[in-house]
Automatic annotation (TrEMBL):
PANTHER family tied to this protein: S-ADENOSYLMETHIONINE-DEPENDENT METHYLTRANSFERASE RELATED, TRIMETHYLGUANOSINE SYNTHASE
Highest taxon of source: Eukaryota
InterPro entries: RNA_cap_Gua-N2-MeTrfase, SAM-dependent_MTases_sf
Bias-annotated ranges (Polar residues): 30-44
UniProt-recorded name of the protein: Trimethylguanosine synthase
GO cellular component, one term: nucleus
Biased composition (Basic and acidic residues): 9-20
Stretches the record annotates as Disordered: 1-80
Keywords, ordered alphabetically: Methyltransferase, Transferase
Keyword Cytoplasm among record annotations: no
Family: Belongs to the methyltransferase superfamily. Trimethylguanosine synthase family.
Length: 327
């Protein structure tokens, strides 16, 4: 139904201001679990940390470091897409009855149809993936929002799911039909096997390119060593959007009233942003994330879009939409 929401902005006097806005949150027909979305637009004021310019005396050192990096890159094996479906292992779990479910997963098993609507069609998840997969209604809404919330033109035609996991977000991106290419990166073999299997369950296996590897390694190759990427993976940054749903550090993040994004492992907020920032990117983060840390990622006066995603009145996560930056 139509309702009011608030837009939070950081004003020039250093205070946060909440401004009412009118929005329509009617649920689409047939999507009773469609999450409510709360938009938070905030303006960063005075948080930018300026990098020091390299001096002329540092240039020879920089050249030597670049030469060493090029030599190192030449030794990297070629990164290719996975072209054959990986076999399921005993770590690719599917439970048919609560009696089969470990105690720490029973809460998530009760929510299985919110996690994957077609769970009964043999959806598979590793133990860790049960904790980290994006609920399907949220993943579908995020996929719609990303395609309509880009900062520049022309619109992007490729989206890269940097932490592909068991496929929740990648499947939603493929189902949205907003992208010419969907690429999912996952470094854990068992989890990747689950993702490829789940994509088949949803009938989108031919619309997702899977990569077995580390996402930061992929981004580094894309920026500095494209010759170490298969031709099909040499993406145009101008037409590519990045999505990152990184590990938050287990369920303990819920114990923090305000989540410190510098504590995320293995990659914290700053590391992720630095790796992604030559391209537009959306970061899927805990609902209690410290907005001040997010604000510091962009130059003074830059507005960023932060959205809370809710199901049944409870916030599940937030997504920060960040523009490309070359500073």
């Amino acid at each position: 139904m139509p309702r009011f929401k608030t837009r939070r902005e950081h004003s020039a006097d250093g205070q946060w201001r909440d401004w009412p806005e009118f929005t329509n949150t009617d649920e689409p027909e047939g999507t009773s679990q469609s999450p409510e979305i709360q938009n938070i637009s905030q303006e960063n004021a005075g948080f930018h940390e300026h990098d020091l310019d390299e001096s002329e005396t540092e240039l020879p050192t920089a050249r030597r470091q670049k030469s060493k990096k090029l030599a190192s890159n030449s030794k990297k094996p070629l990164m290719r897409p996975v072209t054959t479906k990986l076999p399921l292992t005993d770590k690719c779990l599917h439970f048919d009855d609560i009696s089969e479910v470990p105690g720490d997963l029973q809460k998530y098993y009760h929510q299985r149809y919110s996690i994957f609507r077609y769970y009964d069609y043999d959806v598979r998840l590793t133990h860790d993936a049960w904790f980290g997969v994006t609920p399907e209604p949220v993943a579908i809404q995020v996929a719609q929002d990303i395609s309509s919330s880009l900062f520049s033109t022309p619109l992007k035609d490729t989206i890269v799911d940097l932490f592909g996991g068991a496929g929740g977000n990648s499947i939603a991106f493929a189902l949205s039909e907003k992208w010419s290419r969907v690429i999912a990166i996952e470094k854990d073999t068992d989890t990747l096997a689950c993702a490829m299997h789940n994509a088949e369950v949803y009938g989108v296996q031919d619309y997702i390119t899977f990569i077995h590897g580390d996402c930061l390694d992929f981004l580094d190759r894309l920026k500095t060593a494209t010759e170490t990427l298969d031709d099909s993976l040499r993406l145009d940054p101008q037409s590519t959007m990045l999505f990152a749903s990184p590990p938050w550090g287990g369920v303990n993040y819920r114990d923090q009233d305000v989540f410190d994004l510098s504590t995320m492992e293995p990659y914290n907020l700053e590391v992720l942003h630095q790796a992604c920032k030559p391209m537009e990117h959306a970061l899927y983060l805990p609902r209690t994330s410290d907005l001040r840390q997010i604000a510091k990622l962009v130059p003074d006066g830059t507005k960023i879009d932060v959205r809370q995603y809710c199901m049944e009145g409870a916030s599940k996560a937030l997504v920060a939409f960040l523009p490309a930056s070359f500073d």
